[in-house]
Amino acid sequence: MNRYPLWKNLLILGVILVGLLLAWPNLYSQDPSIEITAARGHEIGEASSGEIKAALENAKVPLKGIESLEGGKLLARFDTPGEQLRGQETIERTLSERYRTALTQSADLPGWMRWLGLNQMSLGLDLRGGIHVVIDVDMEAALEQAVERYSGDLRTLLREDKIRYLTLTRDGANILIRFEDAATRDAGEKKLKREFRELDFQPSEESGAFVLRAGLPETEQQKIKDFALQQNITTLRNRVNALGVAEPSIARQGDRRIVVELPGAQDPGRLKDILGATATLEYRLVDTEGSVADAVAGRPPVGSKLYYERNGTPILLKRRGIVTGDQITDASAGFDSQSGSPAVFVNLDGQGARRMRDVTTENVGKPMAVVFIENRTTTQMVDGEPVKTTRKVEEVISVATIREPFGRRFQTTGLDSSNEAHDTALLLRSGALAAPIEIVEERTIGPSLGQDNIDQGLESVMLGLGLVLLFMAVYYRVFGLVANLALVVNLVLTIAVLSMLQATLTLPGIAGIVLTIGMAVDANVLIYERIREEIRNGNSPQASIHAGYDKAFSTIVDANVTTLIAAVVLFSFGTGPVKGFAVTLFIGIVTSMFTAILGSRALINLIYGGRRLNKLAI
Amino acid sequence: MTQKRTINQLNIDFMRQRKAAAWLSGAVLLVCLLSIVFRGFDFGLDFTGGTVIELGYAQPTELSDVRTALETEGLGGATIQYFGSRTDILIRLAPQGDEEDASAKLSDRVFAALSRAAEGQVELRRVEFVGPQVGEELREQGGLAVLFSLIGILIYVALRFEWRFAVGAVVALVHDVLFTVGVFSLLQIPFDLTVLAAVLAVIGYSLNDTIVIFDRVRENFRRLRKGTVIGIINSSINETLSRTIVTSGTTLLVLVALYFLGGETINGFALALIIGILVGTYSTIYVATAIVVWLGLSRDDLLPVKKEGAELDPMP
Q1: Is the dihedral angle over the CA atoms B15, B21, B26, B28 positive or is it negative?
Q2: Do B314 and A559 lie within an 8 Å CB cutoff?
Q3: CB under 8 Å to B293, separation ≥6 — which residues?
């Protein structure tokens, strides 16, 4: 009685061994490392690691090792954080033309472990330090921009086909086009329908006018929103990559939110500026003929628009721009060789370069202005409801005379500082945001607090576990020791599953583990109390063990399933911290069912099974 | 053989005290409800929106110095307190919106101001900023999470047992949730997302406890042919009493460790669970089972259903 067949024992042993193997990598320490990626226009090649090695050797920075990572990256390991910083400095100083660096931590795993694809648990930002930002994308603005774009396209098409219309106005998500008579309207409708299949067209007659209403159908609006979100994610990813942060995570959350997580990032202020910035540059000719005074009084000349310089001086610029930010393919920051003031060097795409050359050739000797455009979003509480306003700020940062025709690459000065030049270049390089964004949530954890959190988490796990182990051993003796072993294996399995799934361990996650330690003993307590009862009722020890496990089983399942329901609800409704707790609670409960029922039974069977017993140490 | 170390031979007439317990529970819950309605909660940043900044100073520092430094920068109206020690300071700011990008950039201004005042001897340990609309959403989601887990549990228990048990279990859970959040309201302990997670964990835990007793009640009804309903419920509670105490005890041990060593951020979480587990153990005995009795459970309701045998088949 009370013996498991061999296969069952082997199965349990196998699961435990696999668990140990998966959890093993977590015993290794982390090396301070540098992640090296290629700069724009360069590649990580065969020679790269040799080159970097040589540079470090020259600077007498001891290197622990260098290896290639997936996605064309190199990882250089160092023994101490000091050497890591010196290493970064060396690479930045000597090879910054070709490589970009980012500080990171990397587990010092032996080769065979890496070959097997084993990895450590990934730690949440609250444990390793970093910045977590939730960004809200202004979908209303994205739609508005789309309607604006369609208005322009419709106008152009009607004009090109010489279909006369009276007015073309926007009405929310619709565009209203008024025609003189029904025939022109129908001709217009036919033409537009063929070109713009995605729009809904509805002809009508309103107070004597012949109106064609073009509307965006629901599906089309959804498409526009999805695109805006996707485009913003891409842009943010470019910006984050340009900042040099290792292991960034940028993910969509729901319909309109983006979560950006940057481990270990040090300067939250600058990061937020870069992420949220919508800055771009535009090049326009200066209107030298119109009267600035008239424009200030509210009567700008046709074809011109009033702008202000940074010092507040009004200036008239031509409405038709030369090039806009989206025609800029590359940008870098530097200094003007003559004045030494900060400058942005800009590269244009083919179309932009052609137009720039044409316009500047025609206008040599005339002034040209550079406009710096930025969207600033604010949220205000009006009657207890948050109301968002986005304001477009347009400032003229420099006005200069065109001395000679511009080519594909040229420079712009007039920025306040080299920092601004640097950031503007970064923003131009990574593309514009498709819709304005706003940071609605931020959680930044400094590195020292992260370490404190790990230490405190470990301490409380250890103490809690220790107390429970002690109690169980005293209260249930041999059976208590078996339960303790099951508990420790449960902890190992939880860590193994976390490592395998690469789920993120957070501080609330540690709390979840601590809680499952408390609750995991419950299964064994239920079984052992049952065995004691059976013994009291006069059953033989062997029969008691058997009945104890048997009868407690359904109770354990019921009890755990209900807790699992709570964990699942937590996971699906929770954000950030709550999710972390739900994950470990869930994993802990599932593994505890295995260890407390099967694992402990196997051990009890090995100890007591198939023997003649007079009493049990319980 | 003797079982000196166990607590099993007790035979307490729990059900006789059920009227008194009902009055006690009713009175306590009334106080909790009144407090929740009139005092409300000291909602943490997660639910109200705003900014929290934790700073670590190299030397112990005076709160008044910090306040002065902030006020000279025009950052008045902040709540400033020590966080764990005199070198660690927590600054709370209400959501702002009258200036450009004020909310998201506020933390940068605060840190810049204080690090100037302290001549760089200060380290930014943590910043949490939650926008007003996110705060509202989190509050809403939190309420929904509690509601949905209760509904899920109601369905599961009704399927596995019987509707009277489901009602008893859910009333007990509502009792525990109300009591736990009531204590947070009465004592004005900050209520944040981790506390909400703890409340949900309390639901899971307390239910666990209830299910164990219900299981035994069902088993005893089927096994014992005689005895009153009250008698059977009483002996079921007594039989599982030692398990109830041991499990609550071990979980409490661990939580106390978490409360004292887990650090300031996890304090509220541990406290909510400690309260919840204590009250959950009480409610299992006096609320859940009492409701089942009150709803008129009889033996016929629990006679084996045909399918039951297959489902309960033991695994090992």
Answers
A1: negative
A2: no
A3: B15, B18, B229, B230, B233
* pLDDT level of residue A154 (50, 70, 90 thresholds): confident
**Helix and strand counts by DSSP (H, E) for chain A:** 17, 22
Segment A562-572 mean pLDDT:
82
Q: Are A324 and A282 in contact (CB under 8 A)?
A: yes
Q: A554, B312: Cβ pair inside 8 Å? A: yes
What does the alpha-carbon distance between residue A210 and residue A212 come to, in Å, rounded to a whole number? 7
Contact A613, A542 (CB under 8 A): yes
Task: Give contacts of B 38-97 with A, CB under 8 A.
Answer: 54, 56, 95, 97
pLDDT tens track for A221-245: 898 888 888 888 888 888 887 777 7
Q: DSSP letter string over B264-286?
A: HHHHHHHHHHHHHHHHHHHHIII
Tokens of A447: 């590195």
Those of residues 224-283 in A touching chain B at CB distance below 8 A are 268-269, 272, 276
Return the CATH number of B14-43+135-308, one of 3.30.450.20, 3.40.50.2000, 3.10.180.10, 1.20.1640.10. 1.20.1640.10
Query: Where, residue-wise, is CATH 1.20.1640.10 in chain B?
Result: 14-43+135-308
Global model pTM greater than 0.95: no
Q: What is the pLDDT of residues A525-543, one digit of tens each?
A: 999 999 998 998 889 999 9
With beta carbons less than 8 A apart as the criterion, state whether A359 and A420 touch.
Answer: no
CB contact under 8 Å between A553 and B314, yes or no, is yes
Per-residue pLDDT of A202-223, as tens digits, reads 888 877 788 888 888 888 889 8
One-letter amino acid at A519 equals M
C-alpha span between A84 and A65 (Å, rounded): 12
Could you tell me which CATH class the domain B50-130 is placed in?
Answer: alpha beta
Find the CB nearest A453 among B105, B196, B263.
B263
* pLDDT tier for residue B99 given thresholds of 50, 70 and 90: very low
Write the ipTM.
0.81
Residues 12-71, chain A, touching B (beta carbon < 8 A): none
Torsion sign over Cα A258, A259, A264, A266: positive
Specify the pLDDT at position B8.
Answer: 53
For residue A548, what are its two tokens? 């104890």
Residue B254 distance to chain A (closest CA, Å): 4
Question: Which tens digits make up the pLDDT trace of A285-328?
Answer: 888 888 888 888 888 887 788 888 878 888 888 887 788 777 77
Nearest residue of B to residue A601, measured between CA atoms: B316
Closest alpha carbon within chain A to B53: A444
Spell out the domains of chain A, with CATH numbers in brackets: 6-24+446-608 (1.20.1640.10), 29-108 (3.30.70.260), 140-218 (3.30.1240), 277-443 (3.30.1360.200)
Residue B307 has a pLDDT of: 47
At B289, which amino acid appears? T
Cα A22 to Cα A503: distance, rounded to the nearest angstrom: 13
| Res. B98: pLDDT tops 70 | no
Query: B250 and A521: CB-CB below 8 Å?
Result: yes
Residue that has been written with the tokens 């009945």 in this structure: A547
Q: B68-87: buried (b, 16+ CB within 10 Å) or exposed (e) per residue?
A: ebbeeeebeebebeebeeeb
String of DSSP letters for A401-428:
E--S---SEEEEE--SSHHHHHHHHHHH
Q: Which of B51, B144, B261 to mutate to test the interface with A (most CBs of A within 10 A)?
A: B261
Task: Please check whether residue B28 is in contact with residue B179, taking contact to mean a CB–CB distance below 8 angstroms.
Answer: yes
Nearest to B156 among A4, A518, A562 (CB): A562
Q: What pLDDT does A493 receive?
A: 94
